[in-house]
Amino acid sequence: MIPSIGKPLRWAVLATTALLIAAACGGGGTTTGTTTFKGTKKLGLSTTISGVSATYGHAISQSVKMAVDELNASGGVNGYKIEADVLDDASDVNKAVQNTQQLVLQDNVVAMIGQVLSSQCSATMPITRQNKTLVIAATCNSYQLTTEPDLVNPYYVSIVPNTYMEGTSAGALAAKLGVKKVFIVSPNYLFGRSETNAFVAALKKASPSTEIVNSESTWYVPFPTNPRWDSTISAIQAAKPDLVYSNIFSADQVNFIKQATGVDPDFFKKYPMTTLSSVDDLSALTSSYPLGMHLYMRAPFFALSNPRIDDFVKRYRARYNNEYPSDWAVMDFDAVQVWAKAASAAGSFDSDKVLKQIVGKSFQSLRGYTFTIRPGDQQANVGETIGTTADSGGKYPFPTLKEVTNLKGDDIIMPMTLVNELRDGKCEKGGNPTTTDFALCPSWKS
Amino acid sequence: MNPAQVLLFAVGGLSNAAYLFIVAAGLSLVFGALRVINMAHGSLYMIAAFVTVVVAEKLGIALGFWGGLVAALILTGVVGAVIEVVVLRRVYREAHLVQLLGTYAVTLIIAGLVRIVFGPNYRTMKVPALFSGSLSLAGFSYSVYSLFMILAAILIAAGVYLMLYRTALGRNIRAAVSDPELLSASGIDVARLFTTVFVIGACLAALGGVIVAPSQAVLSSMDTDVLVLAFAISVIGGLGSILGSLVGSVIVGEVYSFGLQNQYTNQFALAFVFLIMAAVLIIRPWGLFGTPEQ
Asked: Do residues A207 and A291 both lie within one domain?
């Protein structure tokens, strides 16, 4: 006969089982190593782990996870363990919206790090605004995200140089180079149009006689693009510009460069190019990345050497199989640090309280300077690095930059007068679709 | 546009058409003979591209390209055979939707495996020295590799034509396209024939992947990038018709090449391709060179 379990023992077994289940679900305190946490809070990230920008999403998710693990190793935030809740949006806008809904409404994240594509950040703005979820953007960067009345979100903070900052810097640089004929190649979505229009506005202001040699409707190529760039390469050859301006990125940039140099190894000597780039793009092509290209980059570690970033690079490489951290990894690490510092200062995860510790406050960046989140538009005065590609002399498996200038954020940020004119509707309307809205504002024209 | 510029854009369109034809030919062949819409066709193309890059990393560019070609063909052929035996044999008699879902499931599985095996980052390789360099003509430069792609597509088209029209296997495949019922009644081992056709289709996808690998980033979204256009080409040319795939890919390649840089058509270049597809479906649903289904 099988002995039956007495009632007291049965209840003890049930209670123990229930406790174990509750502990596994994180319902109570957790212990990691020697640290006991009050519980777990989630930091949300919807990023491009697959799709055309997979390389960027890979770097971002790695960096955010590393930042979170380091926070936890030093006691978490406000006594809570932080968990990076990372979802793949496959570079797709609809998927980013679904992911954001899940992160905010089901996973109850206390904050989010912004998506990769500006179109994704734009599409998810209503969700985070309505649910008062703090978003710190470190990659998506169209200036409209912080100026356009329909988009402005009080819970959105940007610590990445936006398209006004990048586009006008590139336009001023092109004017300084004294070029007479420019060919434009840009992806046809929010980021591309925003940055290109800013570039054109700045170029025309500084050098009215410079001609854009391809017609406006051909500036923009479908995004994501066909991997073959034969048509654009042929058009550049036909137009013979002094400069090619581009803000294509990731696999598109790699494909364009590979195929252009396949057509002519001296393609970028004949048709110099200025383009947005990143450590990922340099790493993808290694020694095949053309030398002499004028690049503008957001956070290239090799051009921003300082003790903080140098140590970050060491830790990142040690953790991730000797990979070099890309610009996105640097900025998204900064984003987690900003949030963590603010949440600690607030003593709370409440978005309004954390936001009060962010807006108007200054933060030390891996990029070697302190940036401040400007109260008017919650845009940080972060800088941009410009330079010309050169052989690294064997130091890195990819080219680096020479003649480097680290533009200061205060010099390139959109003036608040311009921001307010845009928000208050004081700028002219209509006109050419490729004329950026700020070019029709009184303070820009004066 | 002067004649030299027309030639420049035309050659660009042809190099675009070259790899699309190779991929679309396999898709068209599989549908024509097996009546299966193979959503996993792009996945086979992607596997081949990754294999080529990885082999090139190990063996160096010169040996790696050819080694990659052999490895990609073998691996993709095996994967194709497995897909046909394990998945498709169970759905041949089902509705097209079931076949679509079955092969789409395979696509998702392969996409996940590719990310696990090859990682999330895109890979690149250099063009083999034999095909590197450029030619100058009438003031413009042409990539030798693009010309090689066009030549490769022509040779592959010729090879497929000879296989279809000069071999017993080809005769059986054409019979399967024209009248599958009669084929089984004539004593042909239909199961083995179908597996063979699917493997040939997979190898054509693989050839497409091998050929593009040196000229663009190899990434995990390649499968869908090529599949959409390959389908459009197959529909325009006629499912089951290799000549149709050839003509269809030239149409798509040239429309895209010229359309993208024209100020009036730039925004609609890709849409034109699908407008042409829609027009063909309305006017001649079996495609330009296909045969009406009995």
From this structure: yes
